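Posting this for the archive.
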Amino acid sequence: MTTNGADAKLILLTTTHRVAPGLLSWPAWEALRSAGRVLAADAGHPQLPALRGAGVEAEIVAERSAPALARLLTGQPAGGGPVVWLGSPDGDPGLTDALARLAVEHAGEVPEIEVLPGSYDLPGARLLDLVSVMDRLRSPGGCPWDAEQTHESLVKYLVEEAYELVEAIEEGDRDTLREELGDVLLQVFFHSRIAEEDEGEPFSIDDVAGDIVDKLMYRHPHVFGDAKAEGAAEVEANWEQLKAAEKSDRESVLDGVPAGLPALAYAAKLVSRVRRAGFGGVADEPYELPAELTAESAGRLLLAVAQRAHDAGVDVDAALRSAARGYRDAVRAAEGLKP
């Protein structure tokens, strides 16, 4: 005796390769254990070893055409349980079209179709894909260019991508913002993958993520601990106190300010550190245009601007970029071009 389309069922069991094999939902395991047949198109499916360990054997289906599926899905023994199709990591291209064709050409003969999610991606799961891609690019047989890169050779790209991200933010370009965030993220993963290969002090992207998680939790005791903070100003004050305790070995209030910052940003950061420390040992630069601009007087004037801007709550670096963009647009307009 065989079933017909009215009393048979095909369960399309979808899974994600971004979780450990075997971590399936309870309904998924129930469907697998009660199945008359379990089918899979990929002999290397990551879930197959876990299924075998649980006593569930899957048949490998080489062809996913409508005729092949018709032979598999029609004429199933009665009472044998549903047919479960274990979805492949590649999404089983062509399967949906083949099933749609079956529904038309074999109406009433093919079983009812149910989609059952067996596992889900958690937020951030696609980061695992980026780990895999970077590993592939750096491994033998990957990309020769990527394999040759070092921390030092990538510095220029990191700086360029960071500034392209800044531009996207300041211009309010959402599409470019998303793209540039990805480019900056790539730099972090790229450097972390290179660091794994260090013979002396290797570390991985998990170490990088773990360190920043620990830092964030430590510096937010009002969220992850028992400390209290009323408002953003108090949160910032607590942050600076905790940061100062971490950096207690620093001799100067200016230690740790990277000298590789662009000149105006470097000046602004120095001023910020001095103001925050309440250090009054050095007088501010005079805020006036000298009679003659030289390299020295121009530099001192720009430093004075950075000091006054900080006191006024103005990001002097962003302000200059905004003015420069306005200047650029005015020049293009004078040339008869669009900004």
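Strands lie at 9-14, 37-40, 59-60, 83-86, 112-117. The CA atoms of residues 4 and 109 lie 5 Å apart.
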